[in-house]
Amino acid sequence: NKMNNPLANVAGILLFCLVTLLCSMKAEASTWQVVTENTGLGGRSANCVAAFGKFLAVGTDKGVSIYDGDSCTWQPLPLPEEIASLSVVDIAADESGSLWLATNKGLINVQGKRTYIYGPESNLPTLDVNKIQIQENRIYAGCFGGYVVSAFIPQGGMAKFSPVNYQTDPDSGA
């Protein structure tokens, strides 16, 4: 009699748990979506992501795509034409909701409808920015050659960057 066999009861319970686990895993897996250029992503590859509020910003090989969590839609980040399709290698959002984009054409800061582009004229050692990090009220940018700069995050307008791990030559004007 199977009802009197404790081993059969344990096996039945384990089988039930396994089936329940597999069913729940299948339900979770079915919620994944693959997003491509055909379904809303602005480029072929997603290089980096930053979450801010109900939005997700994805840096791609052809600019930035914004996912709206309320409408579940993708839109390209509106940028000036000369930088709209740059490859974005790193992205961060500061506490005010501004986006910072690392590209090989400089550091880009999007503050609402205003866009600021930082390069050597803004005290960056090179145009090729590889990494950005925000900590409290400061932004740090890693540039080609291992150079690091930092600035206080502006509350509107442009930031003023200073070297972190190198010194500028006072006679060079840099």
Give the strand order, joined by hyphens, for the main sheet. 1-2-3-4
| End-to-end distance | 89 Å
Residues in helices, as a percent range: 10-25%
Q: How many helix segments?
A: 1
The SS-based structural class is mainly beta
- Inertia-based shape: elongated
**What is the residue-mean pLDDT, rounded to a whole number?**
84
Query: Oligomeric form of this entry?
Result: single chain
Q: What is the H-and-E element order?
A: HEEEEEEEEEEEE
Q: Low-confidence runs (pLDDT<50, min 5 residues)?
A: none
Quick one: how many beta strands? 12
Radius of gyration: 24 Å
Sketch the major β-sheet: 4 strands, antiparallel
Strand content: 35-45%
Report on this model:
The structure is a single chain. With 174 residues, this protein is mainly beta. 14% of the residues lie in helices and 37% in strands. It is built from 1 helix and 12 strands, in the order H-E-E-E-E-E-E-E-E-E-E-E-E. The protein has one helix at residues 6-29; strands at residues 46-52, 55-60, 63-68, 73-76, 90-93, 99-103, 106-111, 114-118, 129-135, 138-143, 147-152, 162-163. A 4-stranded antiparallel beta sheet has the order 1-2-3-4, with no helix packed on it. Strand 9 and strand 10 form a beta hairpin. The longest helix has 24 residues, at 6-29. The radius of gyration is 24 Å and the shape is elongated. The N and C termini lie far apart (89 Å).
